[in-house]
Amino acid sequence: MDPVNRIFHEEQPPPVRTTGLLAWSKENLFSSWFNIVISILLFWIIYQFVAFVLSWGLINAVWFGETAQACPDSSGACWAFITSRWRLFVYGLYPNDLYWRVNVVYVLAAITIASFVWSFGKSTMRIRMTMFIGFPIAAYIFLIGGFWGLKYITPENFGGLLLTLTIATSGIFGSIPLGLILMLGRTSDLKIYSKVCTVFIEFWRGVPHIVVIVMFVALLPLFVPGGGKVDIVVRAFIAFAAFNSAYMAEVFRGGLQSIPKGQFEASRAIGLSYWKMMGYIILPQAIRNSIPALVNTCISIFKETTIVLLVGFSDFLGIIHLSLETPDWLGPPHISTSGYVFAAMIYFVFTFGMSKYSKRLENRSNVDN
Length: 369
Description:
Elements lengths: L2 H7 L10 H9 L4 H27 L20 H5 L1 H6 L7 H19 L6 H21 L15 H27 L4 H15 L3 H15 L8 H26 L3 H9 L4 H16 L1 H14 L11 H9 L8 H33 L4
Helix pairs in contact: 6-7, 8-9, 8-11, 8-14, 8-15, 9-11, 10-11, 11-13, 11-14, 12-13, 14-16, 15-16
């Protein structure tokens, strides 16, 4: 084949003007006069926002100091408030000499998360089940103590990020199995189970969350014999799990209703019992279909932990709020702005991580891919 024919027969790259950033910008940002105006306006807004964030959060920020006097200028963030009290924000009211126990729990939590993010071949399921079951037990042993020479620490000493994560974890992992049970009960053919579970779900969904927290924290000893012996923070854990289990039940019921009736009929046709049908065929599909709504509910639970501030608990947001009222840091409004911006960033990191993991689960369980 001569060189000329080879040029026409071989696949040639597309013209430069049809590929790359320049072509994409022309097609998506500057394809018409209206798009040009909108794009320029958006670029200007983004530039102003980024310039302000860099100037306020980095260039003019104050990073170190022990009092509000370290941040006299409101043109920059007062990160000195964060760096001087970060231990209080992370560990709360936990005893200083026992911070290592909290650090062990944080490390175990990171390992547990990593076990669900990455795959380890044939041992993946075994490792995940070990961490899923073992982490709550280990966290209880290290945080509460009373075992193997570890000093007993009441949950009332929790605070800051530790309390927020503990309440969120208890609420999420307590409400998911309870929600599954309520969903199965509500969809059961036995009317007594169905009615009881329906009443339970509708009751908790019809009551404001703050009322549930107050009822468990303040009124439980009045209605339940021996309720006063239950730690006040543990009552908050129970309140979060009970309240959100009703929403979890509806999330799972929505996933169950998305399963075609043919799946049920085929399961019965091959002789599977009810529990085998639900365990092997129906529930895995229902849970997979419920992942977006399930993670959305988990994110709501994590953000709703701030409600305990109204009943006197020093969670992460609460400890920042209390710290801003101390004499050392009682000062100009820009100091409190820095504290609340820091709180917003921390909450965003956790909720965004949940969202990204949700997307990963959806992609992994998508049978069409």
